[in-house]
């Protein structure tokens, strides 16, 4: 049989079977009888986190079944639903999420289980919007957990280790509008000197760049509009000038199919970088990302600039964003505010493997945590130094899954390791 591949075609799944149940009872029966099983979502991870040595379960046949609780300001939805589907429902209903990832095509369960994030000094990861989870445990039993329960902070960013998530309850708020503006050629010296001012200049800020030049290629400001007021377009500042186009190079633009700049629009079509109605963009790429404590960001930038030429020879673009800290045990933003440094690489596996290994050697000693869904080299021993609650997470997983039904190669290497 032909094997399933991820979106970027850089990972081939090892599982022999993919099951596609269309009811909760069928799902519970499958989980109870299978010996090794995992959930597969939108296939947008760049590693084997969603793989299984035996069986995979695809819940895309489940109806989203949106349930809005207006007094509590929450929405409950099937876990395999994509953000594209969710934001369309919320926007039509007058609601919004606090934040979005770059792509809306990813599944909700996959995003929150890996600590995926958007951007903004006062915005937490997508996982911080989770108010409750429902999942099928290894016995086939249905487990519900809500914010405030003792295990909640350990389970939300759960890497698929606790079971098959079926329903998720998320915080929502009244819908709002955003306007995006792009600036070009920000001097690196200005970014370093005015980093806090620049990153707090809008509701969400992205810095897109390469590493060996004298200037940052683009700064994207996503300004949240209030009281139906159309904010003035920002003038040139920090030495940057308004950009004629928002992207970096033709290839990057072609792959992104960006949402609209310069005019107000709904949060659902401005917070993500890519249009909801478009595809997920060019898949001839590999991605890695590292979340460094905010107070060491300038040091991290300096070290990366020192190897900038080597990075840029294989790089499509880097995106730098800020994310608020949280209390979720395996969130890359656990315990402190974070600067996310994302790399989109050319599809060149061997040289990308080499340069990302060098980047990890540079950033991990600074406290940089790799994104769980991207390229990772660090093993469990190295990651245990970065996650103070990792040993508690291991114990909690054993409580819910004592036989290791949801364990796979990824968890064995990056989470459990020598602890076993």
What would a concise description of this structure say?
It contains 13 helices and 19 strands. The protein has 420 residues and is α+β, with helices and mostly antiparallel strands. A hairpin with a 5-residue loop joins strand 12 (204-209) and strand 13 (215-225).
Integer-rounded radius of gyration:
21 Å
- Structural class comes to alpha+beta
Q: Provide the residue-averaged pLDDT.
A: 92
* CATH level 1 class label of the largest domain: Alpha Beta
Q: What fraction of the residues are assigned to beta strands by DSSP?
A: 25-35%
Calculate the terminal CA-CA distance, rounded to whole Å. 33 Å
How many β-strand runs? 19
**What's the tally of helices?**
13
Q: Let me know the largest β-sheet.
A: 9 strands, antiparallel
Which fold does the CATH topology of the largest domain refer to? Alpha-Beta Plaits
Secondary structure: helix percent: 10-25%
Give the arrangement of secondary structure elements:
Elements: E1 17-19, H1 24-33, E2 37-40, E3 55-58, E4 67-69, E5 74-78, H2 83-93, E6 95-96, H3 108-113, E7 130-136, E8 142-146, H4 152-155, E9 164-171, E10 173-174, E11 177-187, H5 188-193, H6 195-199, E12 204-209, E13 215-225, E14 241-242, H7 249-256, E15 264-266, E16 285-293, H8 297-306, H9 308-312, E17 315-323, E18 338-346, H10 349-363, E19 369-370, H11 380-384, H12 390-400, H13 409-416
Parallel strand pairs: 1-3, 2-3
Antiparallel strand pairs: 4-5, 5-9, 6-10, 7-8, 7-9, 11-13, 11-14, 11-15, 12-13, 12-17, 16-18, 16-19, 17-18
